[in-house]
Amino acid sequence: MIFAKTGASFDVLTIYERNFKDFADGDSMLFTYPNEKITMTTGKDGNTTYVQNEPGKNLDLILRIMIASNDDLFLAGKLASQDADFPAFEFVEGRISKRVGYKNDVKFLVYELEGGIFQKNVDGVSSSAGNVDAAVSTYTLRFSLAKRSVQ
Fold first, then answer.
1. 3-state secondary structure of 148
2. Cβ(40)–Cβ(112) under 8 Å?
3. CB–CB of 20/95 below 8 Å?
4. Which residue in 108, 94, 103 sits closest to 149, CA to CA?
5. Would you kindly state where each structural domain of the chain is located, as residue ranges?
6. What is the DSSP string of 79-127?
7. pLDDT single digits (tens) 23-71
8. Model confidence band, residue 75 (pLDDT cutoffs 50, 70, 90)
9. What DSSP character marks residue 70?
10. What is the reported pTM?
11. What would the pLDDT profile of 14-28 be if each residue is shown by its tens digit?
12. Sign of the alpha-carbon dihedral angle for 91, 123, 9, 3
């Protein structure tokens, strides 16, 4: 039997050389590759072509940050900079590091993030029924390149 271990308290997000800490509950970070790495088509007689799909290197990062926290204010300022002068906006660069254990051997799962932009405006919730997401700012960023490694 094999056991793999990790915990959210071991996840570190660094953007603009700033370590983020004001994460909300639940899935505080969701990072996904939204596009396929390879495009494949099969035609007559089973002839198949394969092409590397460059958008397969893109990564979407969704952050759930405590509303009005220092991290929220920092990200809101960067988003405002992007909106004010997009050609002059400094791309988001960063890193996600996740401490993991496998068979009692501790390693780091690392995503190096390059060429990021704010993909959407900040999502939020207004609730009179006690929905705790009303205290969360949800940021969606897209990176042109995200390299994943185990170190």
1. strand
2. no
3. no
4. 108
5. 4-150
6. HHHHHH-GGGPPPEEEEEEEEEEETTEEEEEEEEEEEEEE-SPPB----
7. 988 788 999 999 999 999 999 999 999 999 999 999 999 999 999 999 9
8. very high
9. H
10. 0.84
11. 999 999 999 988 788
12. negative
Q: Give me the count of residues in the chain.
A: 151
Single-letter amino acid, residue 131: N
**Residue 128 and residue 136 in contact, taking contact as beta carbons nearer than 8 Å:** no
Give CA–CA dist 11/8, Å, rounded: 5
Q: Is 22 within 8 Å of 65 (Cβ atoms)?
A: yes
- Residue 27 main-chain phi, psi, to 5 deg: -75, 95
8 pLDDT band (50/70/90 cuts)? low
Contact partners, residue 65, CB within 8 Å, separation at least 6: 20, 22, 23, 24, 71, 72, 75, 136, 137, 138, 139
Q: Which amino acid is at 138?
A: T
